[in-house]
Amino acid sequence: MTLKPGDGIGPAVTSAALRVLEAAGAAIEWDRQVAGLTALESDRTPLPEPTLESIRRTRVALKGPLTTPVGTGFRSVNVALRKEFDLYANVRPVRTLIPTARYQDIDLVLIRENTEGLYVGIEHYIGMGDDPKAAAESVMIVTRYGAERIVRYAFEYAIRNQRRKVTLAHKANILKFTQGLFLDVGREIAAEYRGRLEFADKIIDNTAMQLVLDPYQFDVIVTENMFGDILSDEMAGLIGGLGVAPGGNIGRDAAIFEPVHGSAPDIADQNVANPIATILAACMLLDHIGQGDAGARIRRALEDTVRAGETLTRDLGGTATTYAFAEAVIQRLKP
Ligand code: NAI
Ligand code: MG
Q: For domain 107-238, is the CATH number 3.40.718.10?
């Protein structure tokens, strides 16, 4: 498997996660590679060829967060990786872990289209008179191919994981062509699963409100790229925030697992970052490569540690360091 520790708090949270994996007896040989700011300093490019080469070979990676400069500088390495390996499905499970979060017993999965929509990056300014930026235009791309494969992925995921319902969130009432196509395709595919899975479609703004009012009415949510970006942060908020939210970027030929949070430069080098999101991302990786037993054991030890409440990082109200938390999980892994 390829390992990219990442920038900022990345090296600390990934090495904490690795210790936990090792203690759980996961059989993984890591190929360490660099990306992001760290790679820019060592290799003069944020995404060196050996890193790409490694993922092509291993097809599975665990990645820490990468710093993306705002405005100027290189484009997002995350977006480049999704494009390079056609990682079309962004899977973000949202499950209650912290007893003190806003809601209890949340168990949702967001499946976000990861390659199309407004994020294809087709945009430009339109000049008028002496104003070169009088207007700006971005193009939203939805293809039947792209909509079909993400909706099908959501339904297959639901079947594989014994879920009960798929909700498709959209804005087909206003964006009749792009979102209309997404919804049409969604309904066609839903028909194939009738009797096996419940299906609902919901307008995106209402979905956002309903998630706060009554998240329990949802199960698996599938949506396009930008709506998914926004909903996934909202959903992480339901269970206590970024420190506990993992994600997977999945394609036909490769998969990259990572915490949802960024490199947190404000707390880098303080040894206070919460490694839970990265540990859970590593558990998703274990599920993906057929070592789900080790993943399940880690999740149980993690939940026990959090419920015991003695060893928690600062973001969860504790005083433990990144490694102290990992060590507490490892203690609970021992038979
Ligand atoms: P961020 O997620 O790094 O930080 C947001 C806030 O959450 C900060 O106050 C941070 O201290 C806190 N936080 C994040 N992870 C935490 C953890 N594990 N434990 C405790 N507290 C945690 O988002 P921000 O500040 O907007 O972005 C920082 C950099 O990360 C930027 O360069 C951004 O581009 C990059 N980024 C990279 C991502 C990736 O590689 N997948 C995702 C999001 C942002
Ligand atoms: Mg986002």
A: yes
